[in-house]
Amino acid sequence: MLILKLLISDIKQEYGGLSFFIFVKSFLNPSIHACLLVRLAANSRGVIHVTMRNILVAKHSIDVSQSVIIDEGLKLPHPFCIVIDIGVVIGDRVTLYPRSQAA
C-alpha cells in the first residue's frame, strides 16, 4: 500500500494533479515507469531487489542500492544514467536528472 501511495505522489508531481485519465495515461510515461521500478528496488530485498535493479539497469541505466529512503514526489524527467547509492535519503519533491549520483 505504501508503494501505491508513493507512486500516486510521483504521478501528482509529474502532472500537477491526479484524475482517472491522468492515472491511466501515466502508465505510458517512461518517467513514471522508472519511478515505479526505483521505488520497488529501493523497498525490496533479495531476489526481488536484484530483479528490479537489473530491469532498471537494462532499460534506463539506473542503479539503485538497498537501504535507500525516497519520500513523496520523486520526479525523473529523463530517466537515464542515474545512480542512487546505499543509505541515501531523498526528501520530498526531488527531481533527479541524467548523470545524477546520490551518494
Folded structure, characterized:
This protein has helices at residues 2-15, 20-26, 30-42, 46-60, and strands at 62-64, 69-70, 82-84, 89-90, 101-102. It has one domain. Helix 1 packs antiparallel against helix 3 and helix 3 (30-42) packs antiparallel against helix 4. It is globular. The strands form two sheets. A three-stranded parallel sheet has the order 1-3-5. Strands 2-4 form a two-stranded parallel ribbon. 26% of the residues are buried. By secondary structure, the chain is mainly alpha-helical. The chain is built from four helices and five strands. The protein starts with a helix and ends with a strand. The model has no long low-confidence stretch (mean pLDDT 92).
Give the arrangement of secondary structure elements.
Elements: H1 2-15, H2 20-26, H3 30-42, H4 46-60, E1 62-64, E2 69-70, E3 82-84, E4 89-90, E5 101-102
Order of helices and strands: HHHHEEEEE
Global morphology: globular
Write down how many β-strands occur, each being a DSSP E stretch of 2 or more residues: 5
User: What is the strand arrangement across the widest sheet?
Assistant: 1-3-5
Mean pLDDT across every amino acid position: 92
Q: In oligomeric terms, what are we looking at?
A: single chain
Radius of gyration: 13 Å
Helix percent band: 40-55%
* Number of separate domains: 1
Low-confidence stretches: none
The number of helical segments is 4
Beta-strand content:
5-15%
Please outline the major beta sheet.
3 strands, parallel
Distance between the first and last residues' Cα = 27 Å
Structural class: mainly alpha
